[in-house]
Amino acid sequence: MVYKDLGTEVVDCAFEGYNACVFAYGQTGSGKTFTMMGSSDNQGLIPRICKALFDRMCDNSKRGTTHRVQVSYLEIYQERVADLLIDRRDRENKSLKVREHPKKGPYVQGLTTCLVTNYGHIQDCMDRGNSHRTTASTNMNDVSSRSHAIFTITFIQASYCDGVPSETVSKIHLVDLAGSERADSTGATGQRLKEGAHINKSLVTLDGPIGKNLGEIGQGNAQAILWNLFYLSIYLEMSHPTTPLLAKCNAAGHHLAETLVLLH
């Protein structure tokens, strides 16, 4: 249902040459990562979007269009940007920098970009990145994501129009935000408490800027999403009104206060 309502439009945007972005936002333990990634027998939004992309590429190639797909996967942990497609030991104590290219726009310097030629290859990249994400156990979630993760698909289409070559580049940003949390609910202490403070600090900035910019984007203006202090404000540039925010709520009554904050 989630893919039918949101994913098909995201794939349509990519083939039309527009950028798109999907955020999963909510309380820790509410199912954000499962919605985005799913499991081996129940695929989430990201695998379904990737599979649909390659399925449609096969149809388009019959009409003379060629395609290239590149993926990258990063996490933001305590305001540090890390590459999820390299081994953990290779990225220890190394925070990547977000830069601005005069022609191509914002990019993350040194971030691994993998050329993928089929769905199996892109699945390998997802699995590798997921195994490198920063997680920990709390009272709310045995495997709580302690970082914001961004899986980016760069989609390039090349064709000839009246004998003239043309190329269209679009990007899909798929964002799994770390869960908002209250220390009295998670039982967090020490390092977990520090992580929670960083998570909540970055999520607070969603309340104003993202709500404001989503409205502006809906009116047709290309806007950067101001989020997480600085990093995503230049990394997630939007050029199309397709920026769904998946609000994941916990149905339990004792989480009502947290759910109301989320819906607000």
Automatic annotation (TrEMBL):
Stored InterPro entries: Kinesin_motor_CS (IPR019821), Kinesin_motor_dom (IPR001752), Kinesin_motor_dom_sf (IPR036961), P-loop_NTPase (IPR027417)
Superkingdom, taxonomy of origin: Eukaryota
Cellular component, GO, one term: microtubule
Signal peptide feature range: none
Molecular function in Gene Ontology: ATP binding; cytoskeletal motor activity
Entry keywords, A to Z: ATP-binding, Microtubule, Motor protein, Nucleotide-binding
Pfam families: Kinesin (PF00225)
Domain annotation Kinesin motor: ranges: 1-264
Residues where ATP binds: 26-33
Classification via SUPFAM superfamilies: P-loop containing nucleoside triphosphate hydrolases (SSF52540)
PROSITE patterns per the UniProt record, alphabetical: KINESIN_MOTOR_1 (PS00411), KINESIN_MOTOR_2 (PS50067)
Similarity comment text for this entry: Belongs to the TRAFAC class myosin-kinesin ATPase superfamily. Kinesin family.
PANTHER family in UniProt: KINESIN-LIKE PROTEIN KIF16B, STAR-RELATED LIPID TRANSFER PROTEIN 9
Protein name as it appears in the record: Kinesin-like protein
